[in-house]
Design goal:
Helices cover 37% and strands 16% of the residues. With 462 residues, it is an alpha/beta fold. Strands 4-10-9-8-7-5-6 form a 7-stranded mixed beta sheet, with helices on both faces. Strands 14-15-12-11-16 form a 5-stranded mixed beta sheet, with helices on one face. A 4-stranded mixed beta sheet has the order 1-2-3-13. The C terminus is likely disordered.
């Protein structure tokens, strides 16, 4: 597109630096790339450089940039009724709630719409507390649940630290992580069993009768694409039932096709009491999130008012794009292609990288949601860069990211991991090209490792 100039890009960058305050950043240490436009799995800067988007922005852009049907659904809705406040009934809002509850497991019957993922978790927790009359919430270390007050308290990663003191009635526990088992397990079955034993001990010691809910990402996202071992989530469900605790599944990142099913819990055949979602529900074209609620929790609020709401709850522009998302999923067989590309293209290619590269310790994932875990030494599994690395420690990952960008790929990296999470509409050709770029960039990282690559078997998640 020739109407974007490099001079425009410089002007936008300067105005950004002068006036835009960015998330999670020391403002002087960042140089946000001005983006001119995007299409499908690719976006472009003002110098005309293309970037294959292997992080789907923030793992929300499941249907890619500028999907014509999503764009049109928003345009049509804007022409018809651009906004209507939540206390009215609205066609696209009702229809999206119907589609979501139809797709959800168990007796999840209603949807409370929010503006995004953090507020969905805020409301899920609020519902759980009011429904059970208990206060405490248990959540896992190595998790992210959002940046608002309760959601950041639930979060089990360093983003919480600077926000403390946080909600004192949140208790963190260790979830399963087969590659770095906190329970000295040697098999996924052992990991599931021991992680459940740990969780039950903690429930008992915290006082089961004080715990309203356990919240977990079904597949842990930013903190490592941790696919739960077989039986773990079913075990969590059983513990919740045993102690009268609600089970909240955070599917903000893992939901809406990312793992090859609408809800990731489908892989594990469990029905939570509450599911939170956002991101992929409409690929983030208009902010939207929500809580899918079981009928027994809805019953709590049949004659007693629910004390919460948002001006933009169920915004028609966002819901119209959500309804269209379901139709596109169906018409373009998005779930089927996600499962197919994940198994047939990504899994074998990452396994081959693990064989080839001395710096690759583990690869794991589901659908188009994968992690490559980088190590200094395959035997000791010492991470290539430490947990929560300082800028100096992070140099190898900075180098890796720069090499990818130079080759036309926008990667997702976090600590010592590279995640592979492209839009679900990516062509097979682009997917392979992106994996080629990662493979080549890993060559450079191999020089950070202590030993040459061996042909030892890598451990691969479920
Ligand atoms: N939960 C999970 C698992 C997430 O990955 C995120 C965001 O990345 C959130 C919650 C928060 O969502 P939002 O940024 O829309 O508030």
């Amino acid at each position: 597109m020739s109407n974007f100039t490099a001079a425009d890009g410089r002007h936008i960058a300067a105005a950004d630096r002068a006036h835009v305050f960015h998330s999670w950043s020391a403002q002087d240490n960042i140089a946000p790339l001005p983006v001119s436009h995007g299409e499908g799995a690719t976006f472009y800067d003002y110098d005309g450089n293309p970037y294959l988007d292997f992080s789907s922005q923030l793992v929300n852009l499941n249907l890619g940039h500028q999907h014509p049907r999503l764009v049109k659904s928003i345009q049509d809705q804007a022409a018809k009724l651009a906004t209507i406040q939540p206390s009215f009934a609205n066609d696209v809002r009702s229809e999206l709630a119907r589609l979501i509850t139809d797709a959800a497991p168990g007796d999840l019957s209603h949807v409370f719409f929010t503006n995004g993922g953090a507020d969905a978790n805020e409301h899920a927790v609020r519902m759980a507390r009011l429904h059970t009359g208990r206060r405490k919430i248990m959540s896992a270390y190595r998790s992210y649940h959002g940046a608002t007050a309760t959601a950041i308290s639930l979060t089990g990663d360093p983003r919480r630290w600077q926000n403390e003191p946080s909600d004192s009635s949140v208790v963190h526990f260790l979830g399963p992580y087969a590659y770095r088992s906190p329970f000295w397990s040697e098999t996924p079955e052992q990991e599931a069993e021991r992680a459940l034993e740990h969780l039950e001990n903690q429930i008992v010691l915290e006082g089961a009768g004080t715990i309203a809910a356990i919240i977990m990402e079904t597949v842990v996202g930013t903190n490592g694409i941790l696919v739960p071992p077989p039986g773990y989530l079913a075990g969590v469900r059983e513990l919740c039932d045993k102690y009268g605790i609600l089970y909240i599944a955070d599917e903000v990142m893992a939901g809406f096709g990312r793992t090859g099913t609408i809800f990731a819990v489908e892989h594990f055949e469990v029905a939570p009491d509450l599911i939170t979602f956002a991101k992929g529900v409409n690929s983030g074209y208009v902010p939207l999130g929500g809580v899918v609620i079981s009928s027994s929790i809805v019953d709590t609020f049949r004659t007693r008012p629910y004390p919460g709401g948002l001006t933009y709850s169920g915004h028609p522009l966002a819901c119209a794009a959500g309804v269209e998302t379901f139709k596109v999923f169906e018409d373009e067989q998005i779930l089927e292609r996600t499962r197919d590309l994940g198994q047939r293209v990504v899994r074998p290619r990452l396994e081959a990288m693990a064989q080839k590269h001395a710096c690759v310790g583990d690869v794991r994932g589901l659908g188009l949601f994968w992690a490559i875990e980088l190590v200094k030494d395959k035997t000791t599994r010492e991470p290539l860069v430490p947990f929560n690395p300082s800028p100096e420690d992070n140099q190898p990952m900075v180098g890796f990211t720069a090499a990818c960008k130079k080759a036309g790929l926008w990667p997702f990296t976090h600590f010592n991991r590279v995640h592979v999470a492209p839009p679900l509409v990516i062509s097979e050709e682009d997917l392979i090209r992106g994996l080629d770029i990662i493979d080549a960039a890993l060559d450079d990282l191999d020089r950070y490792v202590a030993q040459p690559a061996t042909l030892e078997t890598v451990s691969v998640g479920a």
